[in-house]
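Exercise 7b. Backbone tokens:
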């Protein structure tokens, strides 16, 4: 959840692997709404019993799922464990193919024949490379992002609509990838001894740029944004924003229902581009307490400056990664550069190797990256509970995670694979808050 998801997508698209291009249709992370509370509405708030049992209340929510629903969500999410591995292995195979077959070298030679200017050569190479990577990773992409989503009932989009968005995504990736690589390779060619330092600074700059501009200029390429006008929904959100120092006088609605049934919201942007957005699924499938609980969570990311903390954390990851990348590139080119037709780190043909090495570094950091994000999500959960004071709304929202996420993972699963707290953890957090604040929650309608 949170606006930084779009910046992370760009960074992954430029620095890890092309099979996950920029799919900037909104936020990556989602809270979900549910149906009924386990207690009568009146008893859920001011009339709650004196001895409130957190574990019993948590179990009452979790038991609302039928065995079939639980089996389906477990299968969907556990399948994602394998897809993470297959994404990495497939991309690795494609990148090695481009190196070993000589395709990367030939693409560079073609660019050199077309122009004598190094920057234009890099741009031409980048356009061809992004296209090649997109085509070669397309079979896994269409299965993972379209057919599998259809199989589990999460997608509303037709194949034609999905392909149209993939084309838009490709065009965005071509333009942004070409610009980014021209800048990065210019740094490598001019600063031979310190390119890894200045390259890291540039990559972090791209991360910040997309975090600021993505919600305003890129996300609308994939969805239509309108201003929320329903005062019953709008006024409580703006009141919550004002109470927490968020500079917003309007709330935007995104038409995510054309693509998915998932609900989402975010407070995105920075440096004057901050905006509050929720999608139409959230409006159509959630009660007011659930919406308030979700928006309280999203505002927590803004109030606790998670985007700036992400920039710092990402900067550390990038700096370390670029330092390791320099050493790994020197070692690899010394041993196999002649076979690949690459003898210089300023040669665009080295890009598949650089992406392979950096994506391996990030893949090995999976639990570290997930833990960082999950910690911030837990912080936002607690902030949202204190701000919106809707523990049962939050629990019902978290329960809907069962549509696409395993609700009760083992401790290892939650640590390694989850970039958000599990549904069970979130419901337990809400019930713990409720136990400590009996008689102070807003009455549910």
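Sequence design result:
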């Amino acid at each position: 959840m949170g606006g930084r998801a779009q910046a992370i997508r760009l960074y992954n698209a430029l620095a890890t692997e092309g099979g996950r291009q920029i799919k900037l249709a909104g936020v990556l992370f989602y809270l979900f709404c549910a149906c009924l509370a386990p207690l009568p509405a009146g008893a859920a708030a001011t009339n709650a019993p004196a001895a409130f049992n957190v574990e019993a209340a948590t179990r009452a929510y979790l038991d609302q799922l039928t065995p079939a629903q639980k089996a389906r969500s477990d299968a969907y999410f556990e399948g994602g464990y394998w897809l993470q591995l297959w994404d990495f292995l497939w991309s690795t195979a494609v990148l090695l193919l481009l190196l070993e077959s000589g395709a990367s070298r030939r693409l560079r030679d073609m660019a050199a024949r077309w122009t004598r200017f190094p920057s234009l050569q890099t741009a031409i190479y980048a356009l061809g490379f992004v296209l090649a990577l997109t085509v070669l990773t397309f079979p896994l992409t269409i299965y993972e992002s379209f057919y599998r989503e259809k199989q589990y009932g999460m997608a509303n989009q037709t194949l034609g609509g999905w392909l149209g968005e993939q084309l838009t995504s490709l065009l965005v990736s071509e333009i942004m990838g070409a610009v980014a690589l021209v800048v990065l390779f210019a740094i490598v060619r001019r600063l031979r001894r310190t390119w890894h330092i200045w390259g890291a600074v540039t990559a972090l700059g791209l991360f910040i740029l997309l975090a600021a501009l993505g919600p305003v200029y890129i996300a609308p390429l994939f969805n239509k944004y309108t201003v929320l006008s329903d005062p019953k929904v709008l006024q409580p959100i703006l009141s919550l924003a004002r109470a927490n120092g968020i500079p917003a006088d309007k709330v935007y609605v995104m038409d995510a229902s054309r693509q998915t049934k998932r609900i989402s919201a975010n407070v995105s942007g920075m440096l004057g581009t901050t905006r509050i957005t929720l999608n139409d699924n959230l409006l159509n499938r959630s009660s007011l307490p659930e919406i308030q609980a979700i928006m309280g969570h999203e505002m927590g990311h803004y109030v606790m400056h998670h985007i700036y903390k992400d920039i710092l954390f990402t900067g550390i990851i990038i700096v370390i990664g670029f330092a390791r990348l320099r050493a790994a590139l020197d070692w690899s080119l010394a041993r196999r550069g002649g076979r690949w037709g690459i003898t210089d780190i300023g040669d665009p043909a080295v890009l598949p190797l650089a992406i392979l090495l950096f994506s391996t570094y990030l893949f090995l950091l999976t639990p570290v990256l997930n833990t960082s994000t999950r910690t911030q999500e837990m912080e936002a959960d607690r902030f949202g509970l204190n701000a919106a004071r809707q523990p049962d709304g939050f629990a019902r929202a978290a329960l809907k995670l069962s549509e696409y996420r395993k609700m009760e993972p083992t401790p290892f699963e939650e640590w390694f694979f989850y970039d958000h707290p599990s549904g069970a953890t979130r419901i337990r957090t809400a019930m713990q808050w409720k136990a400590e604040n009996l008689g102070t929650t807003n009455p549910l309608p």
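Instructor comment: The chain has 16 helices and four strands. The radius of gyration is 23 Å.
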